Amino acid sequence: MSKPDLRGMATPDLVALFAKVTVDQDDALLGNQIARFNRLFGVMAEIADELKSRDGDQRTALLSLFEYPNMQVRLQAAKLTLAVAPVEARRQLEAIASSKWFPQAGDAGMCLSFLDDGTFKPK
Prior knowledge:
Blueprint (H helix, E strand, L loop, with lengths): L10 H20 L3 H20 L17 H10 L5 H14 L4 H14 L6
Helix pairs in contact: 1-2, 1-3, 3-4, 3-5, 4-5
């Protein structure tokens, strides 16, 4: 995958790319491909940073992924929208944690725990 020009992409295209990258993360996670997962995580973070840098913090566009069929997409979208839509993002994390769909349920549960004890502060 060549490095896309994130700055030149429209917000809906960034959201679509975010979904693709996080589906690929899920595949890497399930295949125990740690290096691939880490690379994809970096791409996901770059997309989130680009959305954050746009007028009005466009990470709110990731809320549209809360109904996405892939649990990894929903998890990452929820974690990355905690700063801009805390109530909706927390609700999504609670639903994922309650789903018992592992490993995402465990990740969501830990995120909630870290939020509650102050270890994690969304920005």
